[in-house]
Amino acid sequence: SGFIYPFGKISMEVNEETKDKSVELLIEEYLADRNKLKSLQLKKKLCWDTNFLCDLIRRYIRSLGWRRDLSVTKRTRNTSVRIAVNSKLARMYDSRGGRALMIITIIPAIATAVYAHGHRKRSLRSVFTIQYTPYQVFEMIRPQLWCPTYGGGCCIQ
């Protein structure tokens, strides 16, 4: 099912780097930074019982008569957003080939690591909480669930 349930709440996780700062202040710091290797990364986290919803779906399909192998999994995409400067140095530093070249010639690797230190912020985290129970979401997607029968037909509920 291509079902996406976008209703929830986004908040920011507090850690050592973001303890006394707002998201707006972190973005202002990033914009004011003149470093050619600066970057800002946001990791997204979903706080919701997706495993229980998968279990509900699995049990429902079994109740429709499906007895063959069944796998219900969750996929999460785009769990990280990264903003970086579009400079030649940053593209080289972030590429695998550039990293390999710097490691082979150790002095540029040390120099760029020292130059980038403190300018690559990766501690920004957003927490998305769905404000509905797995039962409520299951009842909304239940009409989309189906189970092919052994005769090749389809039983849609």
Verbal overview:
The strands form two sheets. A four-stranded mixed beta sheet has the order 1-4-2-3, with helices on one face. It has a two-stranded antiparallel sheet with strand order 5-6. The protein starts with 7 loop residues before the first strand and ends with a strand. 38% of the residues lie in helices and 23% in strands. By secondary structure, the protein is an alpha+beta fold. A hairpin with a 5-residue loop joins strand 5 and strand 6 (154-156).
Summary tags:
single chain, 157 residues, alpha+beta, two-stranded antiparallel ribbon, 6 helices, elongated
Please sum up the structure shown.
This protein is α+β, with helices and mostly antiparallel strands. It has helices spanning 23-32, 50-63, 88-94, 96-104, 106-116, 134-141, and strands at 8-12, 39-47, 80-84, 120-130, 146-148, 154-156.
Structural class: alpha+beta
Kindly state the number of beta strands. 6
Which percent range describes the beta-strand content?
15-25%
Q: What number is the mean pLDDT?
A: 78
Could you tell me how far the N terminus lies from the C terminus, measured between alpha carbons in angstroms? 14 Å
Q: Strand order, biggest sheet? A: 1-4-2-3
Helix content: 25-40%
Stretches with pLDDT under 50, minimum 5 residues: 150-157
Q: Major beta sheet, specifics?
A: 4 strands, mixed
Q: What is the N-to-C succession of helices and strands?
A: EHEHEHHHEHEE
Determine Rg (CA atoms, Å).
23 Å
Q: Using the alpha-carbon principal axes, give the shape.
A: elongated
- The tally of helices reads 6
